[in-house]
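Protein record

Derive tokens from sequence
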Amino acid sequence: TNETIGIIPVPSDIRESSGMAEFNPNVDHNRKHHYLASKQGTRKAILPVHTPAEYALFKHFMKTDDAFGTRSKGPIWPQCVQVWNTYADTHEDIYYKLVEQLKTYHAHWMVTLNVKQSKSLSSTARRPINEAARDPLRSVKAPPVLQKSPERNSVTTGFNPVPITAPSANNMVAAQRASLSPSNQPSDSANAESSSMHSPIPSSRHHSTLPQYPAPREVAEEIARQRVAHQLQTSRVPNKVRKSRTCRKCAQPGCPGSQRVSNCKNTCRDCGKGDCRGRNTKRPDKTCSEGWE
């Protein structure tokens, strides 16, 4: 394929004025980012300032090289890019740069430099504030941490009475007898035990087998379900039965004049005329002669 995925080749005049060497596939095919370099047409790839070695090199040039600016003048960008690319030819982690890429990083460099200078000039004024903010004694006045683990809130009072019916003693005896059907009865060696179970259960045991009332949480959930069901039932709006449309002239439901009065072939219900326009739909209680006045 000949697609370059948006990679624009560097024109030869810009490459030569920037001090970049041309890509040689016999020599440069093993370099890092060689595909990008081959599409750009340069020995090394043209990338923004992004490696630690490039950060350190830019800082070194800003301090030592006059092309990157002095106190009396700013950077001379054509010379800066030539100095940079000449150095990049002999170092592995340094890549080619264009003038625009050096200008972009130089703007970022100046912002960072101004921040450092501002912090350096205000260090004396900020020192007591930093010491007060980082003083470990400030935590002495902090409230103690609760030792008790948080518990989930549960409502125990204020519920509406919920009818909960407990089974009677007779029903419990019948249920026990049903569980001891012939298929479920024990062997002959346990007939005595089976007969004792068929005997009437003492009333003192009825209280121990009655189910307990549900917990408050279960009661609250049941009340909430009943309330939601009641609200859904009461909030449903019944569908209104739409009144059939009639002709305003003859008042007959099946008349074609129910859509357009000019389609009506009948006489008017009020005046009896065939060419009448009928009643006014905005004043249906008035006759044809009164509703249009």
About this structure: The CA atoms of residues 279 and 288 lie 4 Å apart.
